[in-house]
Amino acid sequence: MHRQASQLGPISRQTLIVRVASIVALVRGLLVFGFIMAAVLCVGEVLLRILDFSAIRIPENSSVVLNGGDAVQPDAELGWAQIPNVVTQSTTANRTVSVRHNSLGLREKELNDDASGGTFVFLGDSMVWGLDAEVGERFTDLLQNELPRYRMVNAGVLGFGTDQELLLVQRLWSRLKPRVVVLTFSNDNDRDDNTSSLRYQTNYKPYFAQVAEGEWQIRGYPLPPPTRAYVSGKPWVEKFALARAAGLAWAGLRYNELIVPDPTEDLVEMLRRTAQARGAVLVVGLQRRDAKLEAYLQLRHVPYVTLEDAARYELAGGHWTPDGNRLVAGRYLGLFEKAGILSALAQPTDLSALTERNGRAIAEIAARLDRVGASRADLIAASTELEPIRAALHALAANSEREQSPQYAAAVQRAGPLASEADRLAGRISALRRELSSTNPWIPSASVLSPSLWLQAAAALPPALERLVGQGRFWIAAVRDGGGAWRGTAVLLVLTVLYIVMGIVWLWWRQRIIAAGDGDAYFAKTLSSLRGFLRIALTLPIVVIIVGEALEVRMFEISRSVYIGTIVASFGQAVAFAVLAPQARWRRLIGADDGMARGLALDLGAAAISLGWFYILLGMCRAVAAPAVLSTAINMLFVMLIAAILLHALLLTRRAAGGERVWSLRQRSAVGVAGWICLALMVLALLAGYGALAASFAAFVVSLVAAIGALYLLYAVGKVLYVDRYAPNGPREAALAGNFGLAEGWLWLGEGLTTGAIVAGIALAAFVLIVRP
Prior knowledge:
Layout: H1 2-51, E1 72-75, E2 79-82, E3 87-91, E4 96-100, E5 119-123, H2 126-129, H3 139-146, E6 151-154, H4 162-176, E7 180-185, H5 190-194, E8 198-199, E9 203-204, E10 207-212, E11 215-219, H6 235-238, H7 241-254, E12 257-259, H8 264-277, E13 281-286, H9 291-299, E14 304-306, H10 322-338, H11 341-345, H12 351-370, H13 376-397, H14 406-435, H15 451-481, H16 484-515, H17 521-550, E15 553-555, H18 558-580, H19 594-623, H20 628-652, H21 665-688, H22 691-723, H23 731-740, H24 747-770
Parallel strand pairs: 5-6, 5-7, 7-13, 12-15, 13-14
Antiparallel strand pairs: 1-2, 3-4, 8-9, 10-11
Helix pairs in contact: 3-10, 4-8, 8-13, 12-13, 12-14, 13-14, 15-20, 16-17, 17-18, 17-22, 18-19, 18-22, 19-20, 19-22, 20-21, 20-22, 21-22, 22-24
């Protein structure tokens, strides 16, 4: 015993020395790694400080980055608004001007009394607000001097688009009671403002999205905080440029900019209807000529004037100089006189006549709805026409002024019942629209054989493509302005390097598997198929989604549809490659000859790609609010394509090449009967005009076939790995470990990786089955 103890002593000390040396080596490695990371971070910090990117600087007012200095603050409804009662200065590369806001947050004097001649409200961005212009130099101040009987209210807000200006005038209407609304449209950036949910890469704003032809909804609420909120107020973040860059990158990834089709003309129409329903008139001034907007203004008989020859500064946004403001004031004055606006304002507003006119409009809308066969487009038009009238009546009925003339009191009393009638009519329109919802697949349309269907779809295609191209242009401009091209390129390069590294690691590991000797042949086949399935199913979707998110700009409805379509198409192709193995017979999991395997793989891959494009095209239709007939045509084309693919697959599976049977007679009969039934249902649905129902069914069939193939692959792998294994440390376990290139004791690592792959495959199959067009 003593001898054994003496022998164990040196061995234990040696073991202890080895373990201590291992710990020291581990700590040394961690320290070296930490030193390398610290050096990389220091180099990055130094580079960012040297380059001094303006995007990561901390301005004096870190909540809103606009040229108004500290005169602007976040606003939950508008995105941002001017701070009431602020006194400050605005400095640009041109000059420094004084800034004073009234209690409404307008760069205007306090508005205490109504003007005898009526109120003009001027809407616009910094061109109206007066960047680089002192109070007294702006065109609104000059107009006030020329027309002292009237009240000129400058309601310009820094950085606003037409959508925010519409919301602002609705907010201020009860306080200002304008008789003339003057919109100054800045061609330089207003269309960009109207199509985006993020401006200046810092401030989120509401936006109008077209959900149906002629119908727009305001979206974006609740508004995310400004991106600067992620880096301001945190001393340790403000001190380090690298931390600020990381915070801003996180904000951009969390709340991507969204680009919608250009709603400018529709926004001006909403503004015109709002003014008309409340007894006011709309006037428009264009910074320069705009053929599309001018055509709309002429069609609606909206008075407008162009201001392209007004003198502008060359720097800091090109705002009007004092001479330019004088020219703008003269142009507006001439327009007011030419359009007869000043003479019309000489007559007081007849609220009783206005209320009765709104009442007649409500009656006319109700009469149109009583006619048999009101279409969804008719209901949308009625809702669009009714909404501003309804809002005006509610505003008048809620008036609580104590001193009212008898005429005014009578109008207020009459407005209450009319507002209630408008509410009931709005509820009726909503109910009718729900009944006629085009998303219900059980509502038939024209038959696939109807020429009128295809003629209407062909007529609707060019306008939809025009809106889609316009949205794409705004998206490209937003990506370029936000530096998305550089981020996307950098991310793509990183992903390419990672893919190459993973390929090298796989080749090295494959040599280990070969060197490990003979393994289990069937498991090797299923494991190889699983690797191929995951590679095809995940590679392209990961690249598309990561690069798309790195751009930090999304296209309304389209980006999401592209992601889903890519996942679905890649999943179907991965199943065809893994289960049918058209180019590798040794790992084919079903009994089929080479010709049949290639044919079925081609059919399944084509069906999956068709389904992916089907999702993308429907997303494009939703993005531009294309007419329902275009979606119907896409549904029918998709069903016809899937029916042709299914017919080819059914004919192919009747017999293998040379007359060899692939399955037993019972299996072949069951699959054939199910396939022919599905084909017959698709054809009958198309002939009966149930295009949406047929498309949903065809999408389900493709998704189901792909999901069954994936689950069969996962079943084959799991059966060998978890069910058919022999006892631990037996010959079967050694064979399985050889397939992984591992020793027997490390088989748990391969099991864990394979289990994770099976879970990922099941999740993908469930996603493909759940997602619907």
